[in-house]
Amino acid sequence: MRSAGCIINDFFDKDLDKHVSRTSQRPLASGAISSFEAFIIFSILNLIGLTILLSLSSLAIIIGLKSIKFSNYNIISLWYFLDFRL
C-alpha cells in the first residue's frame, strides 16, 4: 500500500516535480511513464491490498477500513481541507 500511496502522491505532484532538481527524474515528472500507466499500476496495487485485507478477520477488516482516512491524508486534505493529525 505504501507503493500505491507514493504513486498517487507523485501523480498529484508531477507538474511541480518537473521544476525541482531533486524530483525532476521521477518517472511521472520525467515522462518515463504516462499518467494512465501510473493509474493502472496504482489500481493493481490497491486491488492486491484489498484482496489481502478481505482475507483477514472481520475486526481487521473494520480497522483497515477505518484507517483509510489516515493512510490517504494527502488526498483527503486536498479535497476536504480536513486536519487528520493525531
Q: Secondary-structure blueprint of this entry?
A:
Elements lengths: L1 H16 L9 H4 L4 H20 L3 H9 L1 H4 L1 H8 L6
Helix pairs in contact: 1-3
Query: Quick one: overall form?
Result: elongated
> Which structural class is indicated by helix and strand composition?
mainly alpha
| Topology order in helix (H) and strand (E) letters | HHHHHH
Main β-sheet: number of strands, strand sense, barrel status?
none
Number of structurally distinct domains: 1
The overall strand count is: 0
The overall average pLDDT, rounded, is 83
Ends apart, CA distance between termini: 20 Å
Q: What helical percentage do the residues reach?
A: over 70%
Given as residue ranges, the uncertain stretches (5+ residues, pLDDT < 50) are none
The rounded Rg comes to 15 Å
* Count of alpha/pi helices: 6
What does this structure look like?
There is one protein chain. With 86 residues, this protein is mostly helical. It has one domain (2-80). The chain is built from 6 helices and no strands. Helix 1 packs antiparallel against helix 3. The model has no long low-confidence stretch (mean pLDDT 83).
In short:
It is built from six helices and no strands. It is mainly alpha-helical and 86 residues long. It has one domain (2-80).
Task: Provide keyphrases for this structure.
mainly alpha, 86 residues
